[in-house]
């Protein structure tokens, strides 16, 4: 999922935004976690936010409710892309995702969430198994053949053009 943000984001909107895989925001976008200013904690949205951003990087925003800009949001890891043209950037990202094999993209999305939760030994074991399975599969054969033959793989929507 991709959040395409072209305006100010406050409180719960930040939680919704960071629940997406990628976040594209306009350079002028501002953010604020204003919950403390109305007497509550950003409890529920802390779950997706703190899975994405280290607590030390966002503590001041949680504690003060002060606004911060897109550059700061990107530097802390809250957003993945800052752009003057959000729609064009989303289109570019989608083209890149569509260039990959569907299963490869799906497995990559899953490993981005899983690997950080595993201890090193278990992560290496599971990723070795996944890598071996994928390299032995039809998408890898097609992808490597397409690379060698200097053509687009057959799963690519632009391959028939």
Briefly say what this structure is.
This protein is mostly helical and 161 residues long.
Structure in words:
The chain contains 8 helices and 6 strands, in the order E-E-H-E-E-H-H-E-H-E-H-H-H-H. With 161 residues, it is mainly alpha-helical. Helix 1 packs parallel to helix 2 (43-52). It is flat and about 60 Å long. The model has no long low-confidence stretch (mean pLDDT 94).
Key descriptive features of the protein:
161 residues; mainly alpha; 8 helices; 6 strands; 54% helix
Helix/strand layout:
Layout: E1 2-5, E2 9-10, H1 12-18, E3 22-26, E4 30-32, H2 43-52, H3 55-64, E5 68-69, H4 70-76, E6 81-83, H5 86-98, H6 102-114, H7 120-135, H8 138-148
Helix pairs in contact: 1-2
Please give the largest β-sheet: 3 strands, parallel
Mean pLDDT: 94
Q: Could you tell me how far the N terminus lies from the C terminus, measured between alpha carbons in angstroms?
A: 27 Å
Number of helices: 8
Low-confidence stretches: none
Gyration radius, rounded: 19 Å
**How does the helix and strand content classify structurally?**
mainly alpha
What gross morphology would you assign?
flat
Helix content: 40-55%
């Amino acid at each position: 999922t991709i959040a395409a943000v072209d305006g100010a984001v406050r409180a719960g909107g930040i939680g919704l935004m960071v629940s997406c895989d990628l976040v594209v925001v306009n350079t002028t976008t501002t953010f604020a976690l204003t919950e403390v200013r109305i007497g509550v904690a950003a409890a529920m949205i802390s779950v997706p936010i703190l899975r994405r951003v280290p607590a030390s990087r966002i503590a001041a925003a949680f504690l003060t409710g002060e606004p911060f800009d897109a550059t700061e949001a990107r530097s802390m890891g809250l957003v993945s892309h800052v752009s003057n043209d959000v729609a064009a950037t989303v289109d570019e990202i989608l083209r890149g995702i569509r260039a990959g094999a569907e299963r490869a993209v799906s497995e990559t999305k899953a490993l981005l969430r899983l690997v950080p939760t595993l201890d090193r030994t278990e992560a290496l074991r599971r990723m070795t198994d996944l890598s071996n399975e994928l390299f032995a599969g039809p998408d890898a054969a097609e992808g490597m053949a397409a690379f060698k033959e200097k053509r687009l793989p057959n799963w690519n929507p632009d391959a028939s053009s």
